[in-house]
Structures are given as structure tokens and as C-alpha cells.
Amino acid sequence: MNVKLKKIATRVTSVAASIALYAGVAQAETVLTMNSWLPPTHPQVSELFVPWMADIERVTEGRVKINMLPAPLGPPPAAFDLAKNGVADIAYSVHGYTPGRFKTPMIAEMPFMSDSSVATSVAFWRVHEALLKDAGEYEGVKVLTLFTHGPGEIFSTKPIETPEDISGQKIRIGSALAHSIATDLGAVPVEGPSSKAYELLSQGVADGIFFPFESVNFFNLNDILDYGYTVPGGLYNTAMFVVMNEAKWNSISPEDQALIEPLLGEAFARRAGEMWDKVDAEGRASMEGKIALKAATPEEIEVLRDRLAPIVASQIAKVSETGIDGQAAYDMLFDEIAKIEAEE
């Protein structure tokens, strides 16, 4: 090969290499880290987050992937700040694990909301978008969704036939609102994460627990607990968030953001609600022959509504402290719940 042809060949090779390198950069993956503190077998991980992560990768054709970390980078109360400060790109947790930090989500933790997690989760998201987000409680992150678990009931090693039977019992709770409800009913609140439920009950630290049906089953409490007391819509609920570091979200191309957005917000909340409704039904079925469930009578429900009314009013007032009309948010929540229930 003469010198001229060698130069041309070298140039062609160089250009080809540059094109290949550019193409590789253009198609480079954005790998997002997701902090997770629940066991990988928990349905919120295996049946909600893992399929959702796969959908993110699918719609972006592999350009955006989420890597769920094998061990948490911090305890559940630290989750929000892990995302906000960029230690993790995505994180989830329970609002109530950091008492006093979030006031607006109290709207979604009220008693007597709905037996459908789809209804409460989607309604919660709609109220957030319409009213609650103006409080600015999620500064520094992109809110991917908000949702609730299914109705929270009370389960115990001791008989509960009426609301009065709760008095004096030591009850594990997981939020400030649940603490207030337990106290109002005469119980002794016991603090502790859900992962410590078996330990608290088996060692007698707690007599009972506020939990949705799913969690009793998942944390292997069917053989420890003997009694359950249920009310329509639950005695309480638990509000949760999934958030992403704002700067990391902004680093994703507008084209991929547009592909991801339909998997967030209300769609993600509905997906979470569907998962919770499914596993709650399975959890309730698993109690058959093991836990005696007592449904509150209409008269008992009215007594409970009267007793808990001051707590509801107090929570609405706390929401209003953020500059949001708490009563309007509360009313909208129940209006939206009714609409969604009518669709189901």
C-alpha cells in the first residue's frame, strides 16, 4: 500500500473510531441507585418496585436503569435526606418515621378513609398535586409518587371485643397520628419499626400492634396474635413517599423524562394501591383459623368517630399551619376517595 493510501486508511479508521465512540456515549446508560430498607421479599419491593424499575428500563430502551442497592445506606428515617443530598438517587419511606417534618401527609393517615388502598393512594396523590405540594415540604427532590398502605387495624394477643378493650394494652405504633389514636383509646403506645414487630410481641414488650392485614402475615405474626378488631376504612393509615434527587432527575434527557413521566405520579400511586389491596386480601385470608377478627358494630363505629373527631380536627389544623387550607384538603381527599370507589 502506498503512503497516500495508508494516510486515507488511517483517517477512515480514526473517523470510524470517533463515530463508534460518539455512538457509545450517546447510548450510555444512566444508572440510578435506589436505597431500600425493606427485605427484598417484601411485596412493596418484589411486586411494586422491581416491576416498576423494569418498566423504566423498557420504555427508555435501556438508557435509564435503576439499581436497587443490596443494603440500605441508612435507617428508614434517613431515606428522604439520602435522596435529597444525592447519597442515593431514589429513596422511599414512611412520612411518619420523621415526626414533625411532614405535616401535609397527615391528611392521608386519617381514620375511616377507605378499605381500598387504590382509592386512598390515588386520592392522596390528587390532593397533593392540587393543594399540598404548595407547602414546599419536598424541596430538593422530585416526588415520584405518594401512596398509602391498606386500612390499618388493631391486632392483639389479648381479646378486643369493643373499643374499651383496647384500654391498658401496650400497642406498637408507627406514626404520630397512630400514637394519638392509641393514646386516645387508652392504650400505651410502643415505638418501634415494623421490622421489630415480632420481637416486640414475642418478648411481651407490646401486647398488640397497629398494622394492615398484609404486614401481620409478612412479619410472621399469625401465630403470635390471637385477636383483631376492624373498622371500615381503618383506624388509621400510613402515608409513604418515593422521591428522587432533583439534580439527578434534571440530568436525564428531556426525551427520556417524557417516557418515564407516565410511570410516575398517579399511575405509580394506583400501582402501589393495587399491590397493597392484593397482598392485604392474601394477608386477611392467611388469618383464617388463627386470628379471631371482630368487626366494629355500627354503634361502636359512631363511638369511635366521636372519640377520634378531636384528633382529626387537630391534624387538619397542623396541615393548615403550612399555609394550606387543611379543611379543603381533607374534604377533597374524601371526595376523591368516593369518586375512585365508585369507579372500582
UniProtKB/TrEMBL annotation:
<keyword id="KW-0732">Signal</keyword>
<protein>
    <submittedName>
        <fullName>ABC transporter substrate-binding protein</fullName>
    </submittedName>
</protein>
<dbReference type="GO" id="GO:0055085">
    <property type="term" value="P:transmembrane transport"/>
</dbReference>
<dbReference type="GO" id="GO:0042597">
    <property type="term" value="C:periplasmic space"/>
</dbReference>
<dbReference type="InterPro" id="IPR038404">
    <property type="entry name" value="TRAP_DctP_sf"/>
</dbReference>
<dbReference type="InterPro" id="IPR018389">
    <property type="entry name" value="DctP_fam"/>
</dbReference>
<dbReference type="Pfam" id="PF03480">
    <property type="entry name" value="DctP"/>
</dbReference>
<feature type="signal peptide">
    <location>
        <begin position="1"/>
        <end position="28"/>
    </location>
</feature>
<keyword id="KW-0574">Periplasm</keyword>
